[in-house]
Write a structure and sequence with these properties.
With 391 residues, the chain is an alpha/beta fold. Helices cover 40% and strands 14% of the residues. It folds into two domains: 133 residues, Alpha-Beta Complex (Aspartate Aminotransferase, domain 1); 234 residues, Aspartate Aminotransferase, domain 2 (3-Layer(aba) Sandwich), CATH 3.40.640.10.
């Protein structure tokens, strides 16, 4: 094999961590200022105010200084209290995992679940809320990466808004790669991070918080305060004249600013189109080789991740190992219920370039052929190229 397991890969096409944009790496290499230096405090305020526009949140977003799992756990602890009834919409591993954090509050958890190759229909949410009018919070994962499926979050948000519940949305692997923001889906707690489609390393969480959510957290006695999980502690930390609850991640804030500059300069519509075309080309190549997507219907498939169903008789871990060893390309496994049943090809940030879809298809097909699975690699590559040319 050409690439030892200890050698650096040629290309990482995973669903995270993803490679960082060169401009972000340059931002990370900027001088690390004292957090109370006026220059950094001004930078921090500028970044947060830019995020308000980009995320389209009702208030200035909160930055928590850890990768987005921190924000998800903090949101569960801060927004959900003992008297709440939480409707959790489960279409994948990460949505299911949120229940563990939500249940710690003592709230009642009501689950609306579908098979992990499907999506949550807004009509099903409306019916669940009709049956349980006492639901106070609805939680959803927009793009559950271990399934590669995308829920119709804007339509679901409209249903939740009519009901009057607070809406908590995980957009960690979708924001920046497809049309979604706090306003479009009417999220009261919009959770994402820059470490996927914005092309940053995993180190920060972004929370768009509505006024209703701020009021709810302030009124929840169990909401963390003076804690790494506290959102309340950070409410005014974006202001240059206010203190930080603890030392912020200075270098990562510099990197985030560089990522936001790139996103705004390219334009969200162009960024989303780049992600969508990359995924379209990848799906076309995979299907042309006679393989199957994991999502039950192609319209459920994500523009930031192509999930490929593992062919019968193929060991999924061995397949990924062969792809890396033979071609130097790294792909992602499934998680939980989807582990061993699918392989994920990420299209996020700097790897959301259509030509990378051609590389992924060629490497995937070549490794399958090496493992004895009949596949027409040339047909797959041709289909991916044709999809790119068609735009």
């Amino acid at each position: 094999m050409r690439y030892a397991t200890t050698a650096l890969p040629v290309l990482t096409l995973t669903t995270g961590p993803v490679d960082a944009y060169p401009a972000v790496l340059r931002g990370l290499a900027s001088p690390v200022l004292y957090d109370y230096d006026p220059a950094f405090q001004t930078t921090y305020q500028r970044v947060c105010e830019t995020l308000k526009s980009v995320v389209r949140s009702e208030t200035v977003p909160v930055l928590l200084h850890g990768e987005p799992v921190l924000a998800l756990e903090a949101a569960a602890a801060s927004l959900i209290g003992p008297g709440d009834v939480v409707l959790n919409l489960v279409s994948g591993v990460y949505a299911k995992g949120f229940e563990g954090w939500a249940a710690r509050s003592g709230a009642e958890i009501v689950e609306l679940a579908v098979p992990y190759d499907s999506v949550i229909e807004p009509s099903a949410v409306a019916e669940a809320l009709r049956q349980r009018p006492d639901v106070t919070i609805v939680a959803a994962c927009h793009h559950d990466t271990p399934s590669g499926t995308v829920n119709p979050i804007d339509e679901i948000g409209a249903v939740v808004a009519r009901h009057g519940a607070l809406f908590l949305v995980d957009t960690v692997s979708s924001f920046g790669g497809m049309p979604v923001d706090a306003a479009s889906c009417r999220a009261d707690m919009f959770i994402t991070g820059p470490n996927k489609c914005l092309g940053c390393p995993p180190a920060l969480s972004i929370l768009g918080v509505s006024e209703r959510s701020w009021a709810k957290m302030a009124a929840t006695a169990t909401a963390p305060r003076d804690s790494i999980l506290s959102i309340l502690d950070w409410r005014d930390a974006w202001r240059a004249d206010r203190p930080f609850p603890f030392t912020p991640s200075v270098a990562e804030v510099n990197g985030l600013e560089a990522a936001l500059d790139l996103y705004i300069a390219e334009g969200p519509d162009a960024v989303w189109a780049r992600h969508a075309l990359t995924a379209k080309a990848c799906r076309a190549g995979i299907l042309a080789m006679g393989l199957s997507l994991w999502p039950r219907e192609e319209r459920f498939a994500s523009p930031t991740c192509t999930a490929v169903r593992t062919p019968v008789g193929i060991d999924e871990a061995a397949l990924r190992a062969e792809i890396r060893a033979r071609y130097g390309v790294v792909l992602s496994s499934g998680r939980g219920e989807t582990l061993g049943r699918l392989t994920r090809i990420g299209h996020m940030g700097p790897t959301a370039q259509p030509i990378h879809a051609v590389t992924a298809v060629a490497a995937f097909g070549g490794a399958l052929a090496a493992l004895g699975h009949a596949v027409d690699v040339g047909r797959g590559v041709a289909a991916a190229l044709a999809a790119i040319d068609a735009g």
